[in-house]
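Question (not urgent): is this output format expected?
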Amino acid sequence: MVSRSPQNPADVVVEVPATSPEAVRQAATRASDAYARWSAVPALERAGALEAAAGALDSHAEELTGLVVREVGKPRSEAAAEVQRGIAILRYFAQQALDPMGEVLPGSPPGALLYTHRRPRGITGLITPWNFPVAIPLWKAAPALAFGNSVLLKPSPEATGIALRLAELVGATLPPQTFTVLPGGGATGRAVVESSRVVSFTGSVAVGRDIAGLAAELGTPLQAEMGGLNASIIVPDADVERAATTIAGAAMTYAGQKCTATRRTIVVGDPGPFTDALVGAVERLPVGDPNDPATLVGPVISESARARVDQAAAEARSLGGRLLRGGAAREEPGWFVAPTLVDNLPAHAQLLHEEVFGPVCAIIPAADVDEAAAITNGVAYGLVTSVFTTDLDRALSLVAKIDTGLIRVNAPTSGVDFYAPFGGEKASSAGPREQGKAARDFYTSLHTVTIAPRV
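Got this back:
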């Protein structure tokens, strides 16, 4: 497995062999033994271990930030913020380890003790993407570990170096084999699913569906987050300049490589003033070397990713779409592509129905808010929608009509609060929500116990 820096493809960040299916099974055997020991550790000690892991990341925050910039091309400001989020996630779940793990209910017959109790599930298989190489592995691993599970993490090949460094930092605070990173591709991921008692996945729809099918065959609980074709709706009373600035950032920063990025902007009424404002806001975004603290838009992750953006822009032009900005690769070395805005697309255009994971956003007119809601809902995905309006009644009315898992008013589609449930509808998600208090429900199983009195 070779991971290269997207801004300098000649820079090999790490090269390691893929973990074979047999090696995964061996790691699972060790993880099972570790689970037996870790699940018996008092919750207070597990909380202390996660707090120590947070401290380890905090002590190496600058180093880890630099590695994120280098390996996945995330602009330095976002990389630093992600590392800080990872630290906060570990601390949050360290405390959640001390939450009540059940409740007492009225007994039947009289005098009986009836209560529920949560237990860890066992080996947790995690398959994670490259775009949030610190936050996503940790918002899955931290709750799994907090509640007494062991973890097998199969990271994206493009983020192998970061995952291995996380294993060194976090693993040092845990018993051996409790947190194991297994580099590899599809065969490695399949073996992780086959070897786990519960699986959490974030990635593409195609891979997620394959994993969901395998998990269903095995009877393994699954949680899968699989992307979005997110919309922002601009109501005529919205603050146009504020909305344009917010949407430009949500659509284009980190080269649009977020499952929550804005892909479609739906403008109710005359789209002209907002379109002009959005073009100006996108033009003001600093594009370039992700090591530069001022940069907000760096490279896409790979040559094939850049080709997909180029292809989408070319298709838009061929269908009569108007290219308002961008649409071509940039001159500097690395996988850079200019932030791209398109309007006047026909209803069947790829950009309006399929996620292109890059800095591309389409502008779509709508006659009224009902049509805007219908356009928002008229795709296979259902992750997040933003609504921009100063009218609370209208905001609440739209919230009730939108079928995405997250709805944000006067806020960007991008951005996740790790202490709140996260997940989408339709093709965006399968299984229960993750993060926040919802995480406990997934990484533990609930047992109901009745103790009848002696007669």
